[in-house]
């Protein structure tokens, strides 16, 4: 009961509320599954599991007291612990887990197979109907979960109980420090989110500047000021469909794929569709995407409507490596972008407490708790992108990036910060930029059409197009590709098909406005 006493005596009203809600969920589960052997706790040695362990201890004793049972003779915690021992786990995690088992008399089922197979075998031999999990909103596994959620299709049947689902990073450390409980030593070495030894590093935001060139040192995890950067220490890897352009061993096929990465640009706004405002952001954004070597496969403007946004995002995210979307972000009824993205990924919009704190700091008392629609984000798939130059955060949902700019100046700043974040965090590959050449001619469309058609077949790696700035003006032919020599060869090949002087090279500027 030292846990309960520590929380009751603290001055942190938010922590007390979170604790009381979690205790209620646990007691409710213990009432629903009245036999102790029907419940279990999946413990992994991390900070969230550590918090839940102590909440379960406190809630179990409180539950027994309410039932009128004597707890004086209870020395061991009777709820069984499920621990999946992995060869890729940090040794410190294993050591900490076994220390907890000794210190608190935990009865452990140690599983050394994969999670699903181990769980199937365990549930065949034990009457477990519910498992307590230390899952929090924002975790990859939290998508679609509630405090009580049945297991997913294809898994053995059991109830997932998530007492700390709505806890933030700040809440977790407030509990640990207030209750003065032991935690894994890795958190004192700068680790803020611990996975396997293959994908986890200390959080660079906690690095202590070191001018001597000796081994880097890190501040402890509880000193991370912004909980939204909790997973910044997880090593990021590109999916197979988006190869890393920095790889020196890339095959010709890889290089070809890199040069063909495509993105879609989606604008959200009835005002653009009605012609009330010019779509300057879309034009500028397309040029910026081309400047990092990506091709635009599609651009569209959709209504301020959740279904319209969802339909377009779902279509484009599956057919492109990246989607950039702008407009329709905010608290107004017409701001449907985030709701549409959530629907496209099959998740709900859920309150993000840390984002709400950020908004309250940004806009003061106008941020009104649950009524603030801006504090709701697509659940479990959202990564907030921070940069010291940005007053408004950027939002990334898997391969969809939401830009919140409302004018060209804001877009320029957001894009520059996004590229800087990409260079340090590998958000998406930065490719060889396109090079371009432009020719102009007074020849007619009919005269040059056959030769241009053949040229496109001869140079399939180039984007060859032509247009007029006026109906009576000259034709401008553009050649765009990653290789400047190929552009030159194509212009020479076209020129050789006609009389000398039929084409003139011109330099075209690409203004951002």
UniProtKB/TrEMBL annotation:
<dbReference type="Pfam" id="PF00994">
    <property type="entry name" value="MoCF_biosynth"/>
</dbReference>
<keyword id="KW-0274">FAD</keyword>
<dbReference type="InterPro" id="IPR014729">
    <property type="entry name" value="Rossmann-like_a/b/a_fold"/>
</dbReference>
<keyword id="KW-0285">Flavoprotein</keyword>
<dbReference type="InterPro" id="IPR001453">
    <property type="entry name" value="MoaB/Mog_dom"/>
</dbReference>
<dbReference type="InterPro" id="IPR036425">
    <property type="entry name" value="MoaB/Mog-like_dom_sf"/>
</dbReference>
<keyword id="KW-0808">Transferase</keyword>
<keyword id="KW-0547">Nucleotide-binding</keyword>
<dbReference type="GO" id="GO:0006747">
    <property type="term" value="P:FAD biosynthetic process"/>
</dbReference>
<dbReference type="GO" id="GO:0003919">
    <property type="term" value="F:FMN adenylyltransferase activity"/>
</dbReference>
<keyword id="KW-0288">FMN</keyword>
<dbReference type="GO" id="GO:0005524">
    <property type="term" value="F:ATP binding"/>
</dbReference>
<keyword id="KW-0067">ATP-binding</keyword>
<dbReference type="InterPro" id="IPR002500">
    <property type="entry name" value="PAPS_reduct_dom"/>
</dbReference>
<feature type="domain" description="MoaB/Mog">
    <location>
        <begin position="264"/>
        <end position="424"/>
    </location>
</feature>
<keyword id="KW-0548">Nucleotidyltransferase</keyword>
<protein>
    <recommendedName>
        <fullName>FAD synthase</fullName>
        <ecNumber>2.7.7.2</ecNumber>
    </recommendedName>
</protein>
<comment type="pathway">
    <text>Cofactor biosynthesis; FAD biosynthesis; FAD from FMN: step 1/1.</text>
</comment>
<dbReference type="Pfam" id="PF01507">
    <property type="entry name" value="PAPS_reduct"/>
</dbReference>
């Amino acid at each position: 009961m030292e846990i309960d006493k520590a929380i009751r005596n603290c001055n942190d009203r938010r922590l007390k509320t979170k604790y009381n809600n979690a205790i209620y969920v646990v007691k409710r589960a213990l009432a629903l599954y009245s036999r102790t052997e029907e419940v279990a706790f999946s413990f992994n040695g991390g900070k969230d599991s550590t918090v839940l362990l102590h909440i379960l201890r406190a809630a179990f004793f409180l539950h027994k007291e309410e039932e009128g049972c004597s707890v004086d003779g209870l020395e061991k915690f009777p709820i069984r612990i499920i621990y999946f021992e992995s060869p890729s786990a940090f040794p410190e995690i294993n050591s900490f887990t076994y220390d907890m088992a000794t210190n608190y008399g935990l009865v452990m089922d140690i599983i050394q197979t994969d999670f699903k197979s181990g769980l199937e075998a365990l549930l065949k031999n034990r009457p477990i109907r519910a498992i307590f999990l230390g899952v929090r909103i924002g975790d990859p596994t939290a998508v679609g979960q509630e405090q009580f959620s049945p297991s997913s299709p294809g898994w053995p049947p059991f109830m997932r109980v998530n007492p700390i689902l709505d806890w933030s990073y700040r809440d977790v450390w407030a509990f640990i420090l207030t209750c003065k409980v032991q935690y894994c030593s890795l958190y004192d070495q700068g680790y803020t989110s611990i996975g396997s030894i293959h994908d986890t590093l200390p959080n660079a935001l906690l690095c202590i500047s070191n001018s001597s060139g000796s081994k880097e040192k890190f501040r402890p995890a509880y000193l991370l000021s912004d909980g939204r950067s909790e997973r910044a220490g997880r090593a990021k890897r590109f999916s197979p469909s988006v190869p890393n352009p920095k790889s020196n061993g890339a095959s010709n096929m890889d290089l070809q794929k890199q040069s063909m990465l495509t993105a879609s640009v989606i604008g959200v706004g009835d005002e653009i569709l009605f012609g009330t405002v010019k779509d300057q952001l879309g034009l500028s954004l397309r040029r910026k995407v081309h400047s990092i070597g990506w091709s635009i496969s599609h651009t569209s403007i959709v209504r301020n409507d959740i279904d319209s946004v969802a339909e377009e995002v779902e279509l484009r995210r599956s057919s492109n490596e990246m989607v950039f979307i702008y407009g329709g972000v905010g608290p107004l009824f017409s701001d449907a972008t985030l709701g549409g993205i959530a629907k496209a990924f099959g998740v709900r919009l859920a309150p993000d407490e840390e984002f709400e704190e950020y908004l309250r700091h940004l806009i003061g008392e106008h941020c009104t708790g649950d009524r603030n629609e801006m504090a709701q984000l697509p659940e479990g798939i959202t990564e907030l992108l921070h940069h010291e130059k940005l007053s408004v955060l950027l939002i990334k949902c898997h391969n969809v990036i939401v830009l919140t700019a409302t004018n060209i100046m804001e877009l320029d700043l957001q894009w520059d910060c996004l590229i800087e974040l990409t260079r340090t965090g590998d958000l998406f590959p930065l490719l060889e930029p396109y090079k371009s050449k432009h020719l102009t001619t007074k020849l007619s469309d009919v005269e040059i059409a056959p030769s241009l058609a053949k040229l496109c077949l001869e140079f399939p790696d180039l984007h060859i197009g032509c247009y007029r700035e006026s109906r009576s003006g000259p034709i401008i032919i553009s050649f765009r590709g990653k290789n400047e020599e190929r552009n030159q060869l194509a212009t020479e090949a076209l020129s050789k098909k006609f009389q000398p002087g039929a084409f003139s090279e011109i330099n075209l500027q690409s203004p951002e406005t």
